[in-house]
Structures are given as C-alpha cells and as structure tokens.
Design goal:
Blueprint lengths: L18 H17 L3 H18 L7 H21 L3 H6 L4 E6 L2 E4 H26 L3 H10 L4 H12 L1 H17 L10 H32 L18 H24 L9
Antiparallel strand pairs: 1-2
Helix pairs in contact: 1-5, 1-10, 2-5, 3-5, 6-7, 8-9
Length: 275
C-alpha cells in the first residue's frame, strides 16, 4: 500500500539533513513567506521550493491527495475573500482598474486579482516545503534532533509518535474500508454524494475506536517502561549537525533577510506595481 505523508528512506541531499536543521529551515521559510506580499520574493520562493522538492526525489503521488485537498481549500478561500472583501486590493494599492462587473456591488478589479494572486503565491511557496518536511524526515531522528536543540524529550517523542503512526492510521482506514465494502457498504462514485458521506461514517467510527485503542496500548507500554521518570534520555537515531545542515539554515535565513529588505524597500509588506 502506498501511504501518504509517510517517511521513506531516499538517497537525497534533503533526506541527509538532520531533522532539527529541516525544522529550523522550515520555520525561517514560513516566516519569510508570512511577513511579505512582495510578488518578486514570493515567486522566487515558489521556484526554489519546486527545485528543492525535485532534489528530494520524493514521488508526487505520496503527497498528491493532500495537495489536491489544499488546492480545493485555496479555491474556496479565494472565493470567500472576494465575497467578503471585493475591494481589499484597491484599498491596499491605492488605485482602481475595473475589468468587469459581476453583480450588485461586485466588480472584478486588477488590484484585487493581484492581491489574491499574492495570497495564492504564499500557499504555493510554503506548501511544497511543509509537505517535504513531513515525508523527508525520519520521525525518530527528528525527535532526537528536537531534544538536542532544547525541546523537552517528552514533547519531542510525542511529535515522533504522531508522525510515525500516520501510515498506520492510513492502513487501518484501508482495511476497515475493504471490510465494510465486503459487507455491502459502498463509498465509491457509484453511490450518490450524500450516500457516500453517510456510508463513510461506517468507516470513520471504527477507525476512531481503533486509533484510541492504539493510543491506550502505547500509553500503557510507555508507563510500564517508566517513560518520563528521568530528566534526560539517550536517542538511538540521533544525528550530529554537519556542514550541509548549517549551509541549509544559512541559505534559508538569507531568504528571510531578503524578504525583510523587500519590506523596507517597499515601505510596507506589499509590493505596489500600480504606482
């Protein structure tokens, strides 16, 4: 079974980085994306994120469903922005160029389209990096790296368990789905949309209970092993920082600096091509 968002060992420069280095780089990258609406910076970040994803050698099918789901959410988000703030771009850029009128108070303007284009670019710049972090980071090694940079090992281990059991939950979902289909509960496109939603409850409820049972088993096992009694612990998968880790962090930090400089040059977060 091909599981989504699960770690797989691949010989790539991205996989060789430590989990802590990837986390620090992701946080810096996210900050750079959030603090600026400069189109030039965001386009550059999007291009770099695609290049980095290619370097990782991760197959797109491992993240395809999540990407499609996010794209649907992005479409809904853009529609909602236009419905509730149809002239936000006009106010931000201080000019107005009408394209065509839709109905009532709604008129499509170049400034609004440009503003929402920048919002879309923000998603496109951060999504590849965030998903890559999940599929290119060994959960155990990531927990060790988190603990190394000062995160409490209990928190680090909790994050590790959450990442590690994503594939298990997916396998449970598929097993339960096959079992329910054998009982005549169809969730395929042959049924109506409402019927599929109703039938999905027959899959989700057993999945929730099986997940709760797994949580209880893990919790009991950890208690029997006296997990949490010591202030420190050792890690089997710990990896030391290497030159490439520092290089990756410095490169991403430089992008954050560029975003800050762009904000200073623009005298704000927005790049205004309409001046």
């Amino acid at each position: 079974m091909n599981t989504m968002l699960s770690y797989s060992e691949i010989d790539s420069p991205i996989h060789k980085l430590t989990g802590a280095a990837k986390l620090i780089a992701l946080v810096l990258w996210a900050i750079a994306s959030m603090i600026t609406y400069d189109t030039r910076v965001l386009v550059g970040m999007f291009i770099i994120s695609i290049i980095v994803f290619k370097l990782s050698k991760v197959e797109f099918k491992k993240i395809a469903f999540v990407v499609y789901f996010i794209l649907v959410f992005l479409l809904i988000n853009n529609i909602a922005i236009f419905i509730f703030s149809p002239y936000e771009g006009v106010e931000i850029y201080g000019s107005r160029t009408d394209l065509f009128k839709i109905v009532g108070p709604y008129t499509v303007t170049v400034q609004q389209l440009f503003y929402q284009f920048n919002i879309t670019l923000k998603y496109f710049s951060i999504i590849p990096m965030a998903l890559l972090f999940m599929v290119a980071t060994n959960p155990s090694e990531f927990a060790a790296s988190l603990n190394k940079i000062g995160v409490n090992y209990k928190v680090a281990y909790s994050v590790s368990i959450a990442l590690r059991y994503i594939p298990d939950v997916q396998r449970d979902y598929q097993d339960i789905s096959f079992a329910q289909q054998a009982r005549g509960i169809d969730t395929s496109k042959k049924e109506s949309f409402i019927k599929r939603i109703k039938n999905s409850a027959a899959i989700l409820m057993p999945l929730i209970f099986s997940s709760l049972d797994r949580i209880d088993t893990i919790s009991t096992a950890m208690e029997l092993r006296a997990f949490g009694n010591k202030k420190k612990r050792t890690w089997y998968s710990e990896k030391p920082f290497k030159k490439n880790d520092y290089i990756a962090i410095i490169l991403v930090a430089s992008i954050l600096v560029i975003a800050i400089i762009a904000n200073i040059a623009n005298k704000g977060r927005f790049y205004n091509p309409f001046i």
